[in-house]
Amino acid sequence: MGKNILVIGGTRYFGKLLVQRLLAAGHQVTIATHGHAPDPFGSRITRIRVDRRNERAMLAAFALVDDYDVVYDQMCYSPIDAAIAVKVFAGKAKRYIVASTIDVYRSLLGQQNTPFAEADLNVLAQPIDTQFAWHDPKLATQSYVAGKVQAEAYLYRDASLPLVTVRIGHVLAGSEDVTGRLAHYVDLARQYGALRYTNAAACSSFLSAQVISDFLVWAGAQDFTGPVNAACDGGLSAFDIYQRVGMVLDQPVRALPVTQAGAPGELSPFDYPAPFMMDMSRAVALGYKFGHSDEWLDDLIRQHDLAFV
User: Can you give the pTM of this predicted structure?
Assistant: First the structure.
């Protein structure tokens, strides 16, 4: 039986794939966005145009709508956004799924040798800064990690939403990828550049846009709550990715170790001084298997190579 589902976001990246899969499964889907980006869904969905970061606008937009079986919040980036979610959807959502990130574990980087499990982050103990200018676009990059951690902290402390926070590994996509992260390595190889890297063994967790959209659909049909890690088997370091690009393109690549570690991601998008992997035990125990990065990585590299100019 189809459900009444709201997707906050849903016009870009894996949010668009999520909506496509929900429609294919027979659900009634509403998307809430600014309305600036076009979508391909036509009359198959309902649209609510609203500024996710404007509390008054959100309250007005959803004041008279029916309750939702599932709300997917793809745009909860700060404790301020989390507070708006509580005020608007408490009592109106039977299941509230927030797209969180592997980066909530960033403060633990280098502190343990094993992959990070959900319980390794004491999210309830995280401080919340309500005075920070979370909505200042000039601060968006530097506030991303802290904002995601504090959004989770706010929502779990409040506890009024039936909450799932999906801590998503690094999402890789093909030519439609708006982040340019995988393209960075393909472009570097095609320009015969040398990759500077910190630690060849510092693998991190990845998944494709298709894999995460499939998992989100599955999670919406379950009844568990709390944080859950989401990533494929087959961790990769920046060094691994560059070597893989060279293999797929049949092109020799050069990589140069750097003796003094910089900030994570400073040398290239997925360069870390220490392993940054997530433990998938909870997802597996809940009955989900993500597969392996080998199943899709080479195809994505080829897509970026075709787009290389």
Answer: 0.95
